[in-house]
Amino acid sequence: MNPQLKRGTLELCVLALLSDRDCYGYELVNAISESIHITEGTIYPLMKRLKDEGCITSYLVESSEGPSRKYYSLTDIGRKKLSVQISEWSDFYKSVNKILGID
């Protein structure tokens, strides 16, 4: 998949997954990788930016399988951003499909 297309939709995918439940980074990578090929290195800079913007928070949970895991949780700001992005995605999707003749 074109890296520019991936980059533009990855934030939407992360916010959508976190709207269902809290996740740790590797878990997000695995969930997204089921549909879009990404690496761990792609997710963490995005998570830092979303945290800096107040869209997500993080907390540590002890793990019996090794070091503590950092879980990410969606904030109210993140939920609003997700709602806006879903609307924008829907409009964009419809517009591109119209141009492609896939209505």
From TrEMBL:
Q: Superkingdom of this entry's organism?
A: Bacteria
| Residue ranges constituting the Transcription regulator PadR N-terminal domain according to the UniProt record | 14-83
Coiled-coil residue spans: none
- Supply the InterPro entries for this chain: ArsR-like_HTH, Metal_resp_DNA-bind_regulator, Tscrpt_reg_PadR_N, WH-like_DNA-bd_sf, WH_DNA-bd_sf
Q: Which residues cross the membrane?
A: none
Q: Return the PANTHER family for the record.
A: PADR-FAMILY TRANSCRIPTIONAL REGULATOR (PTHR33169), TRANSCRIPTIONAL REGULATOR, PADR FAMILY (PTHR33169:SF24)
Q: What protein name does the entry list?
A: Transcriptional regulator, PadR family
Q: Which organism is it from?
A: [Eubacterium] siraeum DSM 15702
